[in-house]
Prior knowledge:
The chain is α+β, with helices and mostly antiparallel strands. Helix content is 34%, strand content 18%. The N and C termini lie far apart (62 Å).
Amino acid sequence: ERMRLAPYQFALSLSRLNRKSYAPPRVKDCRKAHEWSHNQRLQSLHRYGVSTLTSGEDSFLGTNMVPPPREDQNAKTPDLIDVLNSPLARYISFAANECGYGEPEIKDLLVNTVHPLFLKAKAAASKHDNPTWWQAMASEHADEFWEAAKTEIRTLEEMDAWEVVDRTDDMNVIGGTWAFKIKRFPDGLIKKFKARFCARGDQQLQGVDFFETYAPVVQWSTVRMMLILEILLKLKSKQGDITAAFLHADIPEDENVYVDMPKGFEQKGKVLKLKKTLYGLRQSPRAFWQYLTEKLEANGMKQSELDPCLFIGEKVICIVYVDDLLFWARDDSDINDLAFGLRDLGVDLEEEHDAAGFLGVSLIPDPVTNKLEMRQDGLIERCIEAVGLDNATTRDTPCRPGIPLTRDDEGEPALGDFNYASVVGMLMYLAGHTRPDIAYAVNCCARYMFNPKRSHEEAVKRIVRYLKATKDRGMIFDPTEDFALNCYPDADFAGMYGHERPDDPACVKSRTGYVITFAGCPVVWQSKLQTETALSTMESEIVALSHSCRVLLPLIDIAKQLTKAVGKDLNETNMQVSIHEDNAGALILAKTLPPGFTPRSKHYAVKTIWFREQIVRRGIKLCKIDTKEQLGDLFTKGLPLATFVYLRGQLMGW
Length: 654
């Protein structure tokens, strides 16, 4: 029978009386803070009658364990009136008055901050898919989450991730936490239930518990280039996932990291001494990246100098995004040989499928037309649901044409009927991966993330209405055979001047927008305000041109490296690289041999020398393009419907 601990028994920290006085001051502070929060947690557990789930004393993961009982669904959830009538009310009122809140505002304070039980939490756009331990164990999927938790503990023990040791006074023990997640297919259907036991890396001390933390992830431009090459050269692709990835890397023997035992599996007086880099440790991503790099290189894969997560072998190309791997080769057997080689070296690699879905992006090939469409239907549905527009009307464009989104300081306050920051975050992921048509509108909304007004909420809703009208569309790759790189930079000079308050420095900032295509398919795009104030249209165009060149030049090198790896050796003589500019003044300056300059550009010409030298050295063509054909225009301003639809068709294929 499952055992339960009394509230005083599940204390994980030692009493003050037997603590060592020689612990470092920062460690003492962490312990005091942990002990205070722990005592508060004990009082709450005792008050509400919640007990902890534990295994038997003889087993860390008992075979007879059952999930904790769910909360009584008929129990009354306290509402606002209950809280205002409770003994807690006078303390809330006192604290609110001390902070400057008046009597009428206390209810708003309760609703928004103090008492979230009867109001959906503000950060709850993905709350259902990412519950806490208590939420998971009280949800309709409690059984599935409990099985996932047991599977996680079993996996960690099989990988020898730790050893259970007695707690001593001199240990710096950090906390542990459960991270639950419902993993979904790109269309939103449930794929599996995931439980991850993580260490509280926020309690680690730099220089004591960790040192280096940097770990790279692959650039999406590299992924898109490989997808284009896959279409053109009929490459085979496979996707792999590494089980419990971070646990493959060892913690050095001279480092001691101690973690509290996981909730639901506590043993009195015991802690975990880690042998592997558990999830949540600040050094875990870097340790795993170094581990995987070593294993790939041992199998003959060479790490690219241009993208540290790109590995090129004689027959296989591999891309790494944390624990997700994408492989390309001309023959499936070459990919299988590499996968078996990694497994022989101890990498727990599982084959998922071909590259038909990567990081929530659906990759839908059309064997008849030889096209590939990148879509995120599931994320669009989540945006629609989060904003509450399931039955709403749609829009033909994501923003109003010719009218920029301003700060609107005197505007109506936000209603707060949806989580603005969360929805904008989802829209940014969409705009950066499969929907460049909303990049400008999303960037405008993202500028007011921390103080949105009603007008900003309406702007977000307009974007979502547009997505609802086009939710079954994405970005279509229909590559040409020329392997050409084309860059389309554009700028909107002082686009908010006359719309924004004149005392706002941002009102005179210009906006940069550009898109870079490879074989006619977009691989990189951006829309952002310029950091410096341009004094003319020409200067703003030059700033946009300079910014796009910083991205274009490395892409040229990566394109050469990738095409050479797949048997298409491109160089300056047979690789076409063009920059399409619609401003005559900017075009003249860009073509002027450095260090020369035009009369109107002498005050900033020095900053243009570097990319003008590269244009000459690399043989990049500078072409005049009609403004109506300038794809970069899509990223600088709100466009009329006809212009927007035309440029979207040129860029995204629909």
